[in-house]
Amino acid sequence: MSSHSFSRRHFFFGSLLAGAVPIGGFGSVPSLRALGYKPFYDRLNVAAIGCGGQGGVDLNDAARTENIVALCDVDVNRAASNIKKFEGRPLYRDFRVMLDKEGKNIDACTIGIPDFMHATVALACMERGKHVYCEKPLTRTPWESRILQQAAIKYKVATQMGNQGFSAEAHRVACEILWSGEIGDVTEAHVSTTPGTHPTALQSLPPAEPVPATLAWENWLGCAHDRSFSSDYVPYNWRGFFDFGTGQIGNWATHTAGPVHCALQLTAPTSVERVEDIGPSSITFPTRAIIRLDFPARGAMPAVKVFYHDSARPSAPDAYHVPGMENETILPPMFNLADKGRPRIGVHPEGAYPRRPRPHLPPGQRMGAGGPGVKVFGEASEPAQPGILSGNGSVFIGTKGIMATCARGEGVWLLPASRWAEYVLPPELLTRSPGHMLDWVRACKGGDPGCSNFSISGPYAEWLALAAIAFRVPGKLDWDSANLRFTNSPEANKLVKPVFRSGWEMKL
User: Residue 341's pLDDT is what?
Assistant: First the structure.
């Protein structure tokens, strides 16, 4: 194996535990069992922090192969179906109480809660030696991402961010196509997301409402500053507010930018800039925006500019027209590698994400991701138009051609489509995933580090969090990654690290 391919493998799987894994796994060595690693044949004892919504998906995914020993959720209405399904397990409303009382029984934790509490909860788990699977986006701010990277090393635990596309077959094929030289040098890439269903462009906070009896509001607020409850925050629409979420960056760009990050082996950007802003707000993310990030050369790869098109609309004047592709469908079909003999593998075990029935809606209405009864905000998505990047996906502009991926990296092709029809896939360079949750479970038992462990997903989450800051501060922001600061904007530096409520401060 060449040194070049070796480094690429470790770009995916990290080097934190490389060379340290006994043949029988960590569980085969008594001294390493003490670190919390189990033999492969033993089931992990998993606690779920967040049991409704995506947290419930993670809970059920872990339960396919491991033991669920405790549940924690601040909203028992949101988590009701899973609380009933796992009846008999201890149920807590405060993760701190659960960790104190159940710590001896817990090997690992899944964390599926609002963005602003990810780092606080993940660090508390890691400090206690618990392996951590934390939903995307890893953190709301770059400072928190850096802390979690350091914590994973300090506490020697297995980690994974829940950006399932990193385990997708097409995600890895996209990397292999680019590394083969098929599209030449890439100096420009574009990432897009559809409009969300959460609040955007609000000019005032929602009015106060009575706190439902089923919600522990103070526990939900956690490290955030005190404010009155509103159903515009809970259970889903918190993600549109700067104080709580990361908008479509955390909701979907964490997925769609994944192939760009990995295939281009991106490091830290040197600058980030908001180049378009429609519907600005000091409270929520705007209606639509375009962010530019500049990354330096990486080895033989030239410097690259990455444009993020938030809530992309093909009818917008600023819509990105892919050069020379006026009559082409830009984004590939999902799981289109089946046409080339590659199975649908890696994202999740078959059946782990059952499709929920969606109620019939009157014309002009749409379902919010929070489910029935949750207020839907924002603009509706538009049908794709030939030649225009819109929807959830990415485009790589190379000196010898163009490549596109869709969704979580679950589809990939070359443009024009006629080129893809004749294309023969390159040899597999990267190892394949058994499924994103199983990839983490394997790491918890001493196997290869997870493909989105914090040594990989931490730097990725950092630059996504920088893009979120650019929504709030105008002008080109020059970034000094080594010192975790902007060199030309005191205003932007105030957003690098959260301001924690008293008693909730984080330190490593």
Answer: 87
Question: What are the structural domain ranges in the chain?
Answer: 3-166+438-454, 169-349+369-429+463-493
Q: Are strands 320-321 and 159-162 parallel, antiparallel or unpaired?
A: unpaired
The mean pLDDT of 436-446, rounded to a whole number, is 95
Helix (H) / strand (E) containing 450: none
Give me the residues paired with residue 404 across strands: 395, 413
Mean pLDDT confidence for 419-437: 94
What number is the average pLDDT over the span 153-177?
Answer: 96
Superfamily of chain region 3-166+438-454: NAD(P)-binding Rossmann-like Domain (3.40.50.720)
Q: What is the pTM of this model?
A: 0.91
pLDDT at 372: 72
Sheet holding 131-135, edge to edge: 91-92, 67-72, 45-49, 108-111, 131-135, 159-162
Q: Are 36 and 97 in contact (CB under 8 A)?
A: no
CA angle 189–192–195, rounded 5-degree value: 165
Task: Record the tokens describing residue 67, joined without a space.
Answer: 């033991």
Q: Coil, strand, or helix at residue 388?
A: strand
Q: What is the DSSP letter of 19?
A: T
Neighbours of 373 (CB within 10 A): 8
Maximal C-alpha separation, the chain: 63
CB-facing half-sphere around the CA of 191: CA atoms within 13 A: 24
Of 144, 28, 64, the closest CA to residue 454 belongs to 144
Structure tokens at 4: 């070049």
Helix (H, G, I), strand (E, B) or coil at 374: coil
242-269 burial string, b = 16+ CB within 10 Å, else e?
bbbbbbbbbbbbbbbbbbbbbbbbbebb
Residue 351: which region, alpha, beta or left (left: phi > 0; alpha: psi -120 to 50)?
A: left
Categorize the per-residue pLDDT at 346 as very low, low, confident or very high, splitting at 50, 70 and 90: low
Task: Quote the strand ranges of 174-310, DSSP E.
Answer: 186-192, 271-278, 288-295, 304-310
**Could you tell me which residues come within 8 angstroms of residue 184 by beta carbon, excluding any fewer than 6 positions away?**
398, 399, 400, 401
Could you tell me the two tokens for 456? 């990989």
CA contacts within 13 A on the Cβ side of 2: 4
